[in-house]
Amino acid sequence: KQEVTQIPAALSVPEGENLVLNCSFTDSAIYNLQWFRQDPGKGLTSLLLIQSSQREQTSGRLNASLDKSSGRSTLYIAASQPGDSATYLCAARGRGSTLGRLYFGRGTQLTVWP
Amino acid sequence: DADVTQTPRNRITKTGKRIMLECSQTKGHDRMYWYRQDPGLGLRLIYYSFDVKDINKGEISDGYSVSRQAQAKFSLSLESAIPNQTALYFCATSGTGGPGDTQYFGPGTRLTVL
Questions:
Q1: Which among A10, A28, B47, B78 is most buried, taking Cβ atoms within 10 Å?
Q2: In angstroms, what is the C-alpha Rg of chain A?
Q3: Closest Cα to residue A100, out of B97, B108, B85, B40?
Q4: Chain A partners of B94 at a C-beta cutoff of 8 Å?
């Protein structure tokens, strides 16, 4: 069974710092790897999706990389802002009989203070 | 208007009661999902449906049932609620399931079972 782990569980940084969130997964046979943002009282919002054939994706100040061989993905946030405060979840999508299922990590709770 | 809506948003009930959570989507997607999230944990898949006639159990289906009334509607029922079903419940939808396909989440239903 796919196991997804996120480190750190929580992170508190001052505004303006560049930061890295880590995600690891046990089964490298994934279809894609996604990063989501979760705000209190709201659902999940997809930030970046990296297909299994890709190495990275970028959107604005966000960059996500994928290394299937080592079972790792990182989310890089440049020049962090208080509005980036949220919980960030990574999810690996299964292949074959588990195609379509997302396996989630527990998330990294990020606080960016002014 | 939101693409994925869930009702109710909050519900408090007593042990043994039957509860139905409803999900509607306007994205025209065939695939729909129900997840639960417990504090400090990632999302876990309860049931998923790839079309109106296709319903599958997820990781934690015991104690739950679902109904796919139409392409746009997917309901989750707790036949006899118990306190350890207290959680945040999310509905999600996705398209064709290709490698670039992501899931779109509703805002969640916070369920408390006393």
A1: B47
A2: 14
A3: B97
A4: 100
Specify whether the CB–CB gap between B110 and B88 falls below 8 A: yes
DSSP string, chain B: --SEEEE-SEEEE-TT--EEEEEEE-S--SEEEEEEE-TTS-EEEEEEEEETTEEEE-TT-TTEEEEEEETTEEEEEESS--GGG-EEEEEEEESS--TT--EEE---EEEEE-
Looking at the complex, report in whole angstroms how far the Cα of residue A106 sits from the nearest Cα belonging to chain B: 4
Interchain CB distance below 8 Å, A52 and B40: no
**Which residues are paired to A93 by β-bridges?**
A32, A102
For B2, other C-beta atoms within 10 Å of its C-beta total 12
Query: Chain A: residue nearest B36 by CA?
Result: A104
Residues A16-74 have pLDDT tens digits of 999 999 999 999 888 899 999 999 878 899 999 999 899 999 999 999 999 999 999 99
Contact: B48, A42; criterion CB under 8 Å: no
